[in-house]
Write a structure and sequence with these properties.
With 401 residues, the protein is of the alpha/beta class. The chain is 45% helix and 14% strand. It is built from 15 helices and twelve strands. Strands 1, 2, 3, 4, 5, 6, 7, 8, 9 and 12 form a ten-stranded mixed β-sheet that branches. A two-stranded antiparallel ribbon has the order 10-11. Helix 1 links the parallel strand 1 and strand 2. Helix 1 runs antiparallel to helix 3. The protein starts with 7 loop residues before the first strand and ends with a helix.
């Protein structure tokens, strides 16, 4: 009997507008595969903007190139107004609401639910996704599972809501769980509900927000759902050092950008390091069992931007609506070091197209590794150990300085 190809889980972490990079990487993979290839990733998981991309793949799992083409068409033509209301009237109304609520102590108006109104995004996703197609893809055998993460504001835990073929059991760990669900637009809107920026979403009896808030183990859902290998497409390369800037007190915009960067990146790198160490342990002593749970090797292929996306964003500021530019300038996000916040909010076609092109180029440069990984073979470089090696080298140089 011929050996079966290990099941690959596609992991798409969050990153706001930076998630356009994932679209470019997926476009490259689609071009490397046969024209009518089905989805090569039986398990697809995503968080925040990554959940949007994951859903797009799952909805058209029978035609991977069609799925990526539809996704690319949206991202290539993005405008901020398709994600949240950024016209002058909406921004003034939001600002006055905040001001009156603060001056009256909440008596005249209740505290706003969020800084932005993201109802345009809900309408866009409603028009793009037929969630019943996910179930049909699973029944047809083109997909094993789709999962998206959200964080409960009361339970203070990360929940991976999933739809899967029979046999995928729910799980519960410290502050994280996997729950089967009839995935809907509400689940997706909860996953993208970045704290402060977008309003939380009621699911059942609890309000949920962006899944990255409590997602310490972003690879967990894919592994629980049966993935034996993981293809991870991140939106930030920790090994890229930002240019040195004079020491100065950070602005609110810089601090907020730093917070979003930690929100979307820290869990990914922490889990990447943990899984790399577990693989090294399994390689040394063989498969082991931890509290009755088998620990096996999980091969990974990690694709990350070759450029600092914060710096890329700074070249596209002029494309933002005037009212949003004024807000960012007021927050201090237009100063040196404010590119992080801009890169997460820059849902403009000029920026997203450059990120799609970058994701495509970076992935094509590793085409041999990508095809070998999808085919079940070993790859020369997974990208994981190289990341930690460069980060460690950078830390050593700083210590010597």
């Amino acid at each position: 009997m011929a050996p079966t190809t290990p099941k690959i889980g596609l992991v798409l972490p969050g990153g706001g507008a930076r998630a356009a990079y994932q679209v470019g990487a997926l476009r490259a993979i689609a071009d490397l595969l046969p024209a009518r290839a089905v989805n090569p990733f039986p398990i697809v998981t995503g968080t925040s903007a990554g959940a949007v991309n994951a859903t797009a793949i799952a909805v058209h799992a029978d035609r991977f190139r069609v799925a990526v083409g539809n996704l690319e068409r949206v991202w290539r033509n993005f405008q901020v107004e398709q994600v949240f209301r950024a016209n002058t009237a909406s921004m003034l109304r939001s600002g006055l609401h905040w001001l009156l609520a603060m001056l009256s102590g909440g008596w005249l108006l209740p505290p706003p639910r969020s800084l932005f109104d993201n109802s345009p995004l809900r309408e866009l996703l409603k028009a793009q996704f037929d969630f019943s197609s996910v179930k049909r893809s699973i029944e047809a055998g083109h997909l094993d599972a789709l999962a998206m993460s959200a964080a409960g504001y009361v339970s203070a835990r990360s929940v991976s809501f999933y739809t899967a073929k029979p046999g995928c059991e729910p799980w519960s760990r410290m502050r994280r769980a996997g729950e089967p669900a009839e995935l809907s637009l509400d689940h997706l809107m909860a996953s993208v509900a970045v704290p402060f920026l977008f309003p939380p979403v009621l699911l059942g009896e609890e309000f949920y927000g962006d899944g990255a808030m409590r997602e310490a183990n972003p690879f967990s859902a894919a592994i629980h759902l049966g993935a034996q290998r993981l293809l991870v497409i991140g939106t930030r390369n920790e090994a890229i050092t930002a240019g040195a800037t004079p020491a100065q007190c950070p602005t609110f915009g810089q601090i907020f950008g730093y917070m979003l960067d930690a929100l979307f990146s820290d869990g990914l790198y922490s889990d990447l390091e943990r899984l790399t160490q577990l693989n090294q342990l399994v390689d040394a002593i063989g498969p082991i069992s931890d509290a009755g749970m088998p620990l096996r090797r999980i091969d990974m292929l990690v694709l990350l931007p070759s450029r600092d996306l914060s710096e890329v964003a700074r070249h596209h500021v002029a494309s933002l609506p005037r009212a949003l530019r004024v807000l960012l300038r007021t927050m201090g996000a237009m100063n040196t070091g404010g590119g992080q916040l801009m890169s997460y909010l820059l849902f403009q076609d000029s920026f997203t197209r450059e990120l799609i092109a970058l994701g495509y180029q970076d992935t094509m440069k590793r085409s041999d590794d990508v095809l070998a990984f999808i085919g079940g073979s070993a790859v020369v470089s997974t990208g994981a150990t190289g990341i930690f090696r460069r980060v460690s080298s950078r830390k050593e140089k700083r210590a010597e300085a």
